[in-house]
Backbone:
């Protein structure tokens, strides 16, 4: 009959075996995660160990006890391997030991297991096997062989680092997960604690090796953490992976500035294996040829960007050093962090260049704009000034006309008044002299008229008033004006207006001025001859034209003067000018007016036979289109109104 | 005897023109500026007005426009008699309401013909 203590121990072991088997099953169900498989295996191992131990305690026969112990060894030897495997994968260190080495770790446990089962042949595990019996029950009490100690040493050499890794992860865990961290610490230390109690014979350790129960607790805690708590299954891994795989270099220094940890990027950076530099002073990391000042790594706190020449050329780094403050602000060490910001710098540089280019472009555009605005303003000013100048000129010409005419009005007017008041007979000499004054004054007025007209044309200020007007009324006015001149030379004055010509759209006053000018010239150079004013359509040439022509049978123009006859002051020379008078500007004005009205003026002449002047003006109104063709014009009757020696024989048709 | 209102600011020319008009057989009243012209036109209601354009106080164009704006006076023919004799001045005078345009120096034969024509028309 087993004692109460034995029963309690057996009960605890059975519970451990059961929970461990459940954990194992759960772990197996989650074997898609790297750490779940070793946890599941560890669970099986603990189950075997605890079950075997329970069987051992329940038996009193040495053979049975020995069989149970040997069965236990299946678990005992494999637990450290699976535990380490779990710790490595769980804390993100799986890369430290690759898969083939995992199995290599199993060589020693396998040997131990074989030796345990074949102990009778060599006694390497147990030199002798016996049981001790006391009031608590029957206990296995062997004398251990040499291999047992190798096995023990090996087991601890696996368990201790596993514990260490788990502890580290637990300590690094954020304070928000304090309870989880505490559980992890407990899981880490539970097997060792159990073993310690057994070795020191404290508490339940007096009766029982608590190692399997410790592992059972560990496995259960871990299972609860990973399956219930969830958080720790990712965070340590994530943290570790982040640290290891981040492209930034990170070195952790202790208070003496020795390297405590560094990530893969940092180790690659200095081209040194992680294991080689742990514990070395940070300054030892620096290559001899670096231009990185040592103070960047040994400063208390730094946050700077520096350029370094590396084997891939000049590169930019952002370097940060900041102290890790511990409890009560004591310096626990430093974290050195750097990042290669060359590409960012290059981008920034590029951006800066682009910005500068844009800035320059913007500036030049602005300058161009300003320049253009300046030019526009200058142009506008010039235009305004030109316009103002033209207006001023125009006003000046108008005033000049007024001022020149006013005294001439008195001179001519008074001369004529005296002439009126003279009696007949004996005052003939005075009358002739007054006539000279009057004629000189009139000539002066003509000259003023022509000069100022021309000045106004040149200033671009001559205005044209376009309107539809009756040709017959224009002719009336012209006859009134020219009649006295024609009378003087004793000429026949013939008006020949084509039937079709009724109205014209144009500047009546200007056309009248041109025709009066031409007719005055004709009268001046014709004595006892015929002067003809002819008006007709000309549809023979391109477009529709109205043609005014003035024909005389006078002295004609010498060929030498024909070409220059429309130029200013181009008059027949010498005595002729004195004889015929005139300003020499009349034909020039006629030509300018005609051209400004988009027409042409031309002349044909034969000396001593007469001259013909043709003024052709464009017909732009719709009614011109329905004008009869030239053949009809030729065929139509031409009403002729003849003014002979001052008498008008007939009136123009519309009158 | 037709009654004329001569508006002329230049005294020398005024006397000269009055001489000619009297010789031609007209009764002549005188005004020396635009305001007088408008007042006398209303008071006298002459048969015809000879209007200088370059007048002090109120110029001839405006005076003409004022007279022509009065329905009682609108029928009085007004002849612009001016040394502003460019073609543009012709249009300006006609636009102001003048019935005819005679330039200075004055062609009295032409002026007489114009006056006769206008007086015949208004009668």
Residues:
């Amino acid at each position: 009959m087993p004692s109460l203590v034995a029963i309690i121990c057996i009960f605890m072991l059975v519970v451990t075996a059961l929970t461990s088997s459940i954990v194992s099953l759960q772990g197996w169900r989650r074997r898609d995660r790297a750490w779940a498989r070793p946890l599941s295996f560890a669970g099986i191992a603990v189950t075997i160990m605890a079950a075997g131990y329970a069987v051992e305690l329940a038996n009193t026969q040495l053979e049975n006890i020995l069989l149970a112990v040997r069965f236990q060894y299946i678990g005992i030897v494999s637990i450290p391997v699976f535990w380490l495997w779990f710790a490595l994968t769980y804390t993100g260190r799986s890369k430290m030991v690759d898969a083939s080495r995992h199995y290599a770790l199993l060589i020693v446990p396998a040997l131990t297991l074989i030796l345990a089962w074949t102990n009778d042949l060599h006694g390497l595990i147990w030199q002798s096997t016996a049981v001790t019996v006391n009031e608590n029950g029957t206990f296995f009490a062997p004398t251990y062989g040499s291999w047992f100690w190798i096995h023990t040493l090996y087991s601890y050499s696996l368990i201790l680092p596993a514990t260490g890794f788990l502890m580290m992860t637990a300590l690094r865990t954020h304070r928000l997960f304090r309870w989880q961290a505490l559980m992890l610490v407990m899981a880490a230390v539970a097997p060792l604690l159990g073993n310690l109690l057994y070795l020191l014979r404290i508490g339940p350790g007096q009766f029982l090796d608590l190692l399997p129960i410790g592992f059972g607790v560990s496995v259960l805690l871990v299972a609860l953490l990973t399956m219930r708590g969830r958080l720790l299954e990712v965070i340590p891994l994530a943290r570790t992976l982040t640290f290891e795989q981040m492209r930034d270099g990170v070195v952790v220094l202790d208070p003496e500035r020795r390297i405590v940890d560094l990530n893969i990027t940092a180790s690659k950076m200095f081209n040194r294996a992680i294991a080689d530099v742990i514990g070395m002073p940070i300054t030892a990391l620096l290559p001899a040829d670096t231009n990185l000042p040592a103070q960047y790594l040994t400063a208390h706190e730094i946050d700077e960007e520096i350029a370094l020449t590396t084997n891939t050329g000049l590169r930019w780094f952002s370097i940060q050093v900041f102290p890790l403050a511990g409890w009560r602000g004591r310096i626990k060490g430093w974290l050195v962090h750097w990042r290669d910001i060359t590409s960012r710098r290059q981008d920034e540089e590029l951006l800066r260049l682009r910005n500068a280019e844009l800035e320059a472009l913007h500036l030049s555009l602005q300058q161009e704009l300003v320049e253009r605005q300046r030019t526009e303003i200058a142009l506008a000013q010039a235009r305004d000034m030109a316009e103002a100048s033209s207006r001023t000129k125009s006003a000046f010409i108008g005033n000049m006309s007024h001022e020149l005419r006013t005294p001439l009005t008195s001179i001519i007017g008074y001369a004529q008044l005296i002439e009126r008041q003279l009696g007949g007979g004996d005052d003939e000499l005075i009358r002739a002299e007054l006539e000279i004054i009057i004629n000189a004054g009139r000539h002066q007025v003509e000259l003023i008229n022509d000069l100022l007209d021309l000045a106004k044309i040149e200033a671009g200020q001559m205005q044209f008033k376009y309107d539809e007007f009756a040709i017959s009324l224009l002719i009336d006015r012209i006859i009134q004006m020219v009649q006295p001149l024609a009378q003087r030379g004793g000429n026949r004055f013939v008006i020949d207006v084509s039937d079709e010509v009724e109205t014209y759209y144009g500047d009546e006053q200007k056309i009248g001025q041109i025709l009066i000018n031409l007719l005055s010239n004709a009268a001046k150079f014709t004595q006892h001859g015929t002067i003809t004013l002819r008006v007709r359509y000309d549809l023979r040439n391109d477009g529709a034209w109205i043609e005014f022509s003035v024909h005389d049978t006078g002295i004609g123009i010498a060929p030498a003067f024909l070409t220059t006859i429309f130029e200013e002051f181009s008059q027949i020379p010498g005595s002729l000018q004195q004889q015929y008078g005139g300003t020499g500007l009349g034909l020039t004005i006629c030509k300018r007016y005609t051209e400004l009205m988009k027409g042409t003026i031309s002349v044909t002449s034969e000396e001593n036979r007469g001259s013909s002047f043709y003024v052709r003006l464009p017909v732009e109104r719709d009614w011109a289109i329905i004008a009869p063709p030239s053949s009809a014009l030729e065929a139509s009757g031409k009403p002729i109104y003849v003014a002979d020696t001052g008498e008008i024989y007939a009136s123009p048709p519309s009158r | 005897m037709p009654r004329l209102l001569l508006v002329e600011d230049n005294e020398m020319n005024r006397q000269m023109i009055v001489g000619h008009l009297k010789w031609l057989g007209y009764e002549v009243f005188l005004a020396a500026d635009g305001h007088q012209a408008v007042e006398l036109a209303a008071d006298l209601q002459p048969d015809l007005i000879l209007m200088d354009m370059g007048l002090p106080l109120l110029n001839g164009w405006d005076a003409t426009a004022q007279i022509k704006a009065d329905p009682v006076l609108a029928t009085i023919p007004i002849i612009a008699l001016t040394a502003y004799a460019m073609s543009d001045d012709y249009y300006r005078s006609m636009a102001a309401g003048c019935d005819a345009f005679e330039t200075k120096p004055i062609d009295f034969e032409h002026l007489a013909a114009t006056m006769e024509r206008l007086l015949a028309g208004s009668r």
Summary: Chain B touches chain A at residues 10, 12-13, 16-17, 19-20, 23, 54, 82-91, 103-106, 108 (CB under 8 Å). Strands of chain B lie at 3-7, 27-31, 48-51, 78-82, 100-103.
